[in-house]
Specification:
2 copies of one chain form a homodimer.
Chain A lengths: L2 H24 L2 H8 L3 H7 L3 H27 L3 H15 L8 H7 L3 H25 L4 H25 L2 H17 L1
Helix pairs in contact in A: 1-2, 1-4, 4-5, 4-7, 5-7, 5-9, 6-7, 7-8, 8-9
The first copy, chain A, binds a DNA duplex through helix 3.
DNA sequence: GTCTATAAAGCGATAGAC
DNA sequence: GTCTATCGCTTTATAGAC
């Protein structure tokens, strides 16, 4: 990785936090400028197409992170059950036990969904598919694996909403633990 | 109900749709003016404190609707199982099989959560409590009823995210049906 | 009560100096 | 590359005519 590529990664990480905290509509260039430490001129040098490009690249970088750190390990783990356990652990860490919101989920619920529909779909389909593959390796039939995987991802997104709404991170970690237990057991 | 109270109800309904579609930050007075059919001057005559008051009253009206049409029936149904079935049916109808988003959930995930934290909490606590009361009447022990109720509400919110993300309303209705089955059975 | 006109501030985006 | 200055537009909110 070159030096400028690494710097771009740092900028995308800061951008992601701003979009997470304020949503696409609420993330102003003033907030972005403050969070990244770059003036507007520099930001438009990095992202000629402005805010939309920033969000698109952030979503792409999040998807990349999940592919590398969650989906691929889930598919290639020698023990699928351990792979699933690692997924839940990584998910709890990534979302800071529910104190950090899922930007892709926020975009899915918001008005900007139409602009980023393809990226939103890719993210969730990737998650469901990788989890379903692990469940099949655990012996589940194709349809059951898909259905259970979709439901587990749904539970994670729901847990983020409820944890934020009740302002209680224990709700999130508990929901994840129960989801995992349910997934491996039945 | 007086004539002006009914008119205010109509305005709040139109306001709710705008906030649902664009979020708190994205709901501009221009959009609100178009949706309600009132000029900005009239809007500030109805809501002297502007956008924040509009959203606060919308959230209050949503909570009132859920108390009247979901929480209270859930508590007073002669058959708790039928009360729960009615809740799921009303929920599916209210959210238009997942094509309509939950404004309270959207607010919970967004930056405006801090402003409306109390109202968000009231809404979800009211739902969980009412559902837990029905489950207790079905024979569940106190802790189990609470835990299962919280999980069911979590599933509804998660289903809204996934249905919007995958752009598939079948996902929502199917998730609700499975949630209901799971809740009454075990 | 409802409107139009307008204020004051903030918005995304661009130009141009360095 | 990064900045400051600025454009043109939109934002929330207010004032005042009717």
């Amino acid at each position: 990785m070159t030096k400028t590529e690494a710097a771009r990664g740092d900028i995308l990480a800061a951008l992601a936090e701003v979009f997470r905290a304020h949503g696409y509509e609420g993330a102003t260039l003033a907030l972005i400028s403050e969070a990244t430490g770059f003036g507007k001129g520099s930001l438009y040098n990095f992202f000629p197409d402005g805010k939309e490009q920033m969000a698109a690249e952030v979503l792409a970088s999040i998807d990349r992170w999940f592919v590398d750190n969650i989906y691929t390990p889930l598919r290639t783990a020698s023990d699928p059950a351990k792979g699933i356990a690692a997924m839940y652990a990584a998910t709890d860490a990534y979302f800071r036990s529910g104190q950090r919101v899922c930007l892709v989920g926020v975009v899915a619920l918001g008005a900007s969904r139409d602009i980023f529909a393809a990226k939103v779909k890719t993210y969730f389909v990737g998650w469901v598919d990788a989890l379903a593959a692990a469940l099949r390796r655990l012996g589940d039939e194709r349809g059951a694996a898909r259905r259970k995987a979709e439901h587990a991802v749904l539970e994670i997104q729901g847990a983020l909403v409820i944890a934020r709404a009740l302002d209680d991170s224990k709700v999130f970690s508990r929901a994840l633990a129960e989801s995992q237990k349910r997934l491996v057991k039945r």
